[in-house]
Amino acid sequence: MTAFTQRHLLGLEGVPAEDILHVLDTAKSFVEISERDIKKVPTLRGKTVINLFYEASTRTRTSFEIAAKRLSADTINISASTSSAQKGETLADTARNLEAMRPDAIVIRHPLSGAPRLLARAVSSPVINAGDGAHEHPTQALLDLFTIRERKGRIAGLVVAIVGDVLHSRVARSNLHGLIALGAEVRLVGPPTLVPEGFRNFSAEIFHDLGKGIAGADVIMMLRIQRERQGANFFPSLDEYSRLFGLDRAALAGAKPDVVILHPGPMNRGVEISSEVADGPYSLILEQVTNGVAVRMALLYLLAARGKGEAEERAAS
Amino acid sequence: VKKDSLVIEGGRLIDPDGGVDGAYDLLLEGGTVRAVEKPGALHSREAGRRIDARGCWVVPGLIDVHCHLREPGYEYKETVATGTAAAVAGGFTAVACMANTNPVNDSAAVTRFILERAAEARLARVYPIGALSQGLRGERLAEIGEMRVAGIVAVSDDGEPVADGALMRRALEYCAMFGLPVIDHAEDPGLVAGGAMHEGRTSLRLGLPGIPAAAEEAMVGRDLLLAELTGGRLHVAHASTRGTVEQLRAAKARGVRVTAEATPHHFTLTDEAVAEYDGNAKMNPPLRTAEDREALRQGLADGTIDVIATDHAPHHRDEKEVEFESAAFGIVGLETALPLSLRLVEDGVLSAADWVRKISMEPARMLRVGGGTLRVGAAADVAVVDPAREWRVDPAALRSKSKNSPFLGWTMKGRAVYTLVGGRVVHEEPGR
């Protein structure tokens, strides 16, 4: 295996295929730990991982916390929306304060695009983007890639349809970059208001018809549709959206028999995805969650375990 | 010998208004241009001071029709004193400042306050621009006539678009009585809708809400029609898109009374400058595409765009060193406009004389103020520019109180080595 070249994980854009595969291969070796009776290894003992969450998140935060704990790291969760941020402290100041506490990795979730980059400029520890605005959510994409590869045995050459609010989706952007880097064919499916023409610049095909978009696809990735988009006229109503782009059994009739379905969660059952599809045999939605822990363990290992001895040096000096 | 007499000799005098471009020496006295003579003709003339301008261009002082001096109300960003210090360091002898202060310059009292501050600073001339509407709220006309008496040279709600077409119509009609231009910050607020950068490939990539070119072009279209309807004087601020340039070109061809400006950042950079979420690449209108930039340069070359203006917009570091969407719009520009616009000369877009037209002569005409010329009898507002001098943009060396520039660290070519206002040296570059 070649060396992992990333210092932070701010996004998958520009990350070479070798590094992505490196994470996936490392994750593979961590899956087994979560299946043990005692789900803990000492890999990151004495390391500190800060989860800095400026936006509500159950799944991602829990997943990062479990990943860190299974590697024996100390984890601290900061819900910044209810702490200093309310008192007007800037992200840059928060970053400098955290830096002074010498963490070994900072995981950040933020409602505004680019915030992890701002953080990475201000701190010396590795920064992992756990989702920023409409920009990227690279760990979600890595776990999606991992899940697809586990099921299909490969990524290259697969046809992946990403369906829904691509414009506002960080999950879609990260998956787009990751899938293209690994040689998949990506289709973006949704109304033109949410899947603008400009995405053709990113080597993706665009479909405004769900049936055509998923025909022949190996993977369908559904995106969560947010109610507030209705108020901004991206579509007239959730009902109409659901009729045109909701994935139910009837819509699936034209898909490949071995198609698999992913959803990053949380799902709006009955809107973008019907319960029978979400809970059906093609669905990998819960596997995604399980794999999320292994992928995040891999990342923490690759980024935070670096500079071994650095902590001891500090303690000695 | 008059004590205040001053000779500038050995330079290339470029004064398109006076029809002069060549080796001439200049005698300034009593705050005005006293004589323009062939090289050496003033040699025996005694003078209080002599400036050696060999290797330099001697031009009428630069005039900026669009800047923000932030006083009153935002003195932590800039004051009239620091803003005019930046101006003269950049070769500007006069600046017109926008009304979005606190309180807003929508009354004669605020206009007079700004002028008092400028008189105390004794650096560049300051021409206040009055608010178009009371409080910039876009509802009722401000007392434009009262402000006119106090000294405003134009009206504008710059920073805020005039959303109500009827208000814009009345402003154009009403201001025609005073001969005042209405400066148009053209954007359709509904189309801007929380946008933070140009809507295009880069905004999609970065996941940032975009501002489509149409947000500007729709408003420019409306206001050109209103200028035509009313016969009022419209000035389009910071043109940034190809569609704006095309509409201006067509409107001018059919005789609409319109002038327009472009900023150095819009004709130098593209939206790709935002790639690293750099708050210093955030301004309104946003940096556009390479195609738009080319259209602006073409518009400057063919006369569609009359004026180069800075839109100097100082902001404190704390307003820029934040998440991109939270960052304030705007960048400082008074100290970098000269070298950035000289690139247009180097690139063959403008002749040296055209450059002087766009950054001095036409601004004076647009605002109907003095300056922009070095004819005998004109105000002795002069910039001595070394077009070959290279320097690095060092934030610590900028005179502006704020350092929010995407050009920090750039090597610039071209510098004002002397700036004179009313015959008085107000800026002198060391090492000359």
Structural class determined from secondary elements of chain B: alpha/beta
Give the neighbour order of strands across the main sheet of chain B: 3-2-7-18-19-20
The ordered H/E elements of chain A are: HEHEHEHEHEHEEHEHHHEHHH
Question: How many beta strands in the DSSP annotation of chain A?
Answer: 9
| Structural class assignment of chain A | alpha/beta
Mean pLDDT of chain A: 92
Number of strands of chain B: 20
Q: What would the principal axes of the Cα set say about the shape of chain B?
A: globular
Low-confidence stretches of chain A: 308-317
- Radius of gyration of chain A, whole Å: 20 Å
Rg result of chain B: 21 Å
List segments of chain B where confidence is low: pLDDT < 50 over at least 5 consecutive residues.
Answer: none
Q: How would you name the oligomeric state of the polypeptide chains in this document?
A: heterodimer
Biggest sheet architecture of chain A = 5 strands, parallel
The major pleated sheet of chain B works out as: 6 strands, mixed
Straight-line distance between termini of chain A: 34 Å
The fraction of residues in strands of chain B falls at: 15-25%
What would you call the shape of chain A? globular
Most extensive interface between two protein chains, with residue counts = A-B, 26 and 18 residues
Question: Please, what is the average pLDDT of chain B?
Answer: 97
